[in-house]
Amino acid sequence: MEMACRVINRRRHVGLQQLLSFAQTGRSFLGPVKATKFITDAECHESVLISSTVRLLEGLDLTCAVGHLLNEAVQAQNDTYKIGTSTLLFLVGAWSRAVEDCLHLGIPTTVIVSVMSEGLNSCIEAVVSLQVPIHSVFDHMDNTSTVYKLETVNATLCPFLQVPSGSGLLQERDDFKDATSPLLSTYSLSGRHAESPKFFKPQNNLETEKNTSQALKNNLYTDSFCKKSALTHSRHFNRTDNSHWISRHDGFLEQLGSTPKILRCNDLGELAVGLSHGDHSNMALAKAAVRLQWQSLCLQQANWMAPFMFDISRLLTCCIPGLPETFSRVGLGYVTFVTMSSITLIKELQDQPFRVILIEGDLTESYRHLGFNKSVNIKTKLDSGALSEDSAEELWTNHVLQVLIQFNVTLILVQGSVSEHLTEKCMHSKRLVIGAVNGSVLQAFAEATRAVPVAYVTQVNEDCVGSGVSVTFWMSPHDINRSNRIAILLTAEGINLITAVLTSPASAQMETKEDRFWSCVYRLYHALKEEKVFLGGGAVEFFCLSHLQILAEQSLNRGNHACLGWLPDSSSWMASSLSVYRPAVLKCLAGGWHEFLSAIMCNTATHPSAVEARTFIQQHVQNAIDSGSPSSYILSEYSKLSNGVFHSGISDNLELVPRVYDTVTPKIEAWRRALDVVLLVLQTDSEIITGLVHTEVNSQELDGVLFL
């Protein structure tokens, strides 16, 4: 992809400048209001619309080592969690700028690495106070019927950032019985050293807890919110708003008052709206898929009481461009495409139950499974009477047809490719062959029809054949897309398989819509899996910013690193360097969060300029610091409607204001990976030129150009 070039100053750290250049390209993907980009191929001049970091990096020319490193980190985040890549990319740029500022101040590299690593670890430990438990979200749902209603509400998506939205909130009428009561689990993530090159792997929570420095736990500044003992008589809790929050023994939050109120989420609708991040239509589809899977499981197992786990492998997408977006929906079964030549066959057979066989691998004459070994020391001599290749294909096709006729098979689902000649032969004999079927689809049909998947047709017997599959048109046979294919629906009674059909009138938007749908699905999936979420809307980042500034001020005022427990040897050079430079490094690290919040506010147009956004943020950071407890300040603002920082401006009733949530582990791992990339680039570049160059150097060498 051709993009604007950025001048690289060779007198500064080249690697960090390159990271900053790459990160700037994805700035518009941050926040609930995402700006899309066109990627144009320089050779064939084809364009596609994107709004995700992964798609962006796929289109960039990442020829330099730093680009490959960044792409590997983003891909690792995407492969593990499928979300958080935009946060990762932006923080890579923000913290690259922060490290450059530290270098400009003459701070040693070892000090930068040590203080930034411990600073982030401290934030990760402290933000546990902003976790919200998810409890029994399926208790109020009906396992037989659901009524969906879209009602237009001018709702706030981002309380801290004041993001308005005209989209509808999903409201429902639910008459649900108790189906499950998921157990709550406490969550703790401790830090690992950022200089470790193992940042491409997710961190094991148990190992982290064991390896966390006890000195860091005991001596680093901790918000009074995170302490096990509730300071109900502390001056920090003597507020006039009567909104006091304390930390419970299980790590979650409780509001004190006349009626104690525990901050929790126990409704799937509230959770989905909170995690939609402005994309209500796709989140509505994701939520419907979760409900459908839960309802299907309840109907299959009447006495089922085990905790429900959303099986994301049983959810597929089928993209149909050219139709209005209102045609998008989710449903049980498998939606796929067939060619126009199959329309007549499906019309004849759609009212009849299909007998099905499942083929793992290719359905071709030359296919051999991966474990197949050719016989050795055997030579085949061909004479004039030997069969030609075409004749061998014909013989194999006829043999396959004989097997299908023998067992009265009318539907063949194949995981791999299918012989075109066999497909035509089957069509003439009124048999439907569908290739390139996902492995989870085969498994779902195997469970529903009791078919046994086989590698070769020659292995088929009566016990391998399933029954009860129905095939219908998903859309009218007259609605054929541009590739001259028609969508059909395959289903069976009791099948545990859901297809989300995504439609868009513009083909260029189809990929973007699918990416956004999967983002919503994975946000919901991780939240249900972990049974906890963060307060969103910038609350977590705001807390980290406040927390780091308090650490910096404390370090600056005390002037004694020993009280913070960073290093035991006060006589060492490293210890003295940490004591001198720690406040500056922590402030630079906090600057990354400041830049993050400012970018979101500018993207959502809540503030016309970055200067106004930064001023607004700093005012509330100072208020949070002055309050003595940033987490209490944040939670108090969530409980108010009249305050500017969390003011929704839509209603005087708190119950009509939807909370905003964020996933826990994907967000934290995105932070870790971002800082790990920056610090790795910092340490691997052995020569950092910060002063004047005394030798004569060509101006092109001084100001190189990095093409993105």
Automatic annotation (TrEMBL):
Q: Name one GO biological process term.
A: photoreceptor cell maintenance
**One GO cellular component term noted in the UniProt record for this chain:** cilium
InterPro entries for this protein: BBS12, Cpn60/GroEL/TCP-1, GroEL-like_apical_dom_sf, GROEL-like_equatorial_sf
Q: Which SUPFAM superfamilies match?
A: GroEL apical domain-like (SSF52029), GroEL equatorial domain-like (SSF48592)
Which GO terms fall under molecular function for this chain's record? Answer: ATP binding
Q: Please give the superkingdom of this protein's source.
A: Eukaryota
Q: Cross-referenced Pfam families, in alphabetical order? A: Cpn60_TCP1
Q: What is this protein called?
A: Bardet-Biedl syndrome 12 protein
Provenance organism:
Mus caroli
GN (gene name)? Bbs12
